[in-house]
Amino acid sequence: MKQEEYFGFDAVENLEGVVKGYSEVLLVTGKGSYEGCGAREEIEGQIENLTRFCGFGVNPKVEDVERGCKNYGDYGLVIAVGGGSVIDMGKSISTLARQDGEARDYVTGKRGIDRSKNIPFVAIPTTAGSGSEATHFAVVYVNGVKHSLADDSMLPDVSIVDPNFLRSLGGYQRACTSFDALSQGIESCWSRNSIGESRRDSLDSVKHIVESIERYVQGDNSDIVLENMARGSNLAGQAINVAKTTGAHALSYGFTQFEIFPGQGIPHGHGVALTLPEFFRFNIDGVNNRWIRLLGMVGGYEGLIGLRRSVGLESISELIEKDVFDEDDLVRIVDNVNVDRSGNNPRDVSKDDLMKIVGL
């Protein structure tokens, strides 16, 4: 499937032409971020008949997807404006709302998707992180277990990447989302599923992100920094759309269940950052000279440790000291790693390897 893509400052102005001809439009958004990033003013000035759905949290639950499918299946177009969770929710509703079966049966793989029933979908990211606007899969949780709803038809029909929407994010959110994008770029590069084109996207994404991530996290809203981060995130999404992610992402989901602040779990990007340096050392440093260019870009294990520290993301040992989790929790995280996702890793990873990677 070929996607129609608009990229650049003020790219959102193309939305009016995209929605022309649709009488009823469902708008999937975050709660506060939609207004905070300036998207509401830009989008609602171009579209008249909008219904907004924002009653869900980070890491979409199947119950929220089911509610969206039940209430909005008659709409002619779905637009998602937000970060990865918002876009994944939009993908799920646009794909499943008109299917014959229950949403959870498709999420859990019991039924296959009838592509003829998909609702047209537009993705507009407001973070430089997930790259979900460029992928054909969505994360949905069923009874606390992460599932990946995937089908080639789930690639958004249209993506609109406007770096202007990155201006309002706070420092910690910038650090988490950008480390997620960086990890996607790195992991898709060394993934067993990578091919020549996806590796070019991977390396290009890492180049853009490394060039600007520290300035971005410090609050630099210059055009070059915002454009680099938006482009890097989008390219990383294109790369994982082909190659998928590997060990660091497989481990990251277990960390998100623990609260780093009252009422807030560890964000996915921070969870990835906890083990990305260790996976880099395990996979590449002194082992695989094939990725010498990637090594040079990020400085290997020490370079990633320094970058994580520079953008203010705490390590596993630091979070243990703060009683966010303990060593017994780490054992449980390792025991519940997604085997399929870690199977993309360039080196086979045993349970003992994972224990060493988390510091046990």
Question: How would you sum up this structure, described in words?
Answer:
With 360 residues, this protein is α/β, with parallel strands linked by helices. It has two domains: 4-164, Rossmann fold; 170-357, Dehydroquinate synthase-like, alpha domain (Up-down Bundle), CATH 1.20.1090.10. It has helices at residues 15-19, 33-36, 39-44, 62-72, 84-96, 103-107, 171-190, 196-217, 223-243, 247-255, 268-273, 276-283, 292-298, 300-310, 316-321, 327-335, 339-342, 351-357, and strands at residues 4-7, 25-29, 50-53, 77-82, 121-125, 137-142, 145-150, 158-161, 259-261, 264-265. The strands form three sheets. A six-stranded parallel β-sheet has the order 1-8-5-4-2-3. Strands 6-7 form a two-stranded antiparallel sheet. A hairpin with a 2-residue loop joins strand 6 (137-142) and strand 7 (145-150).
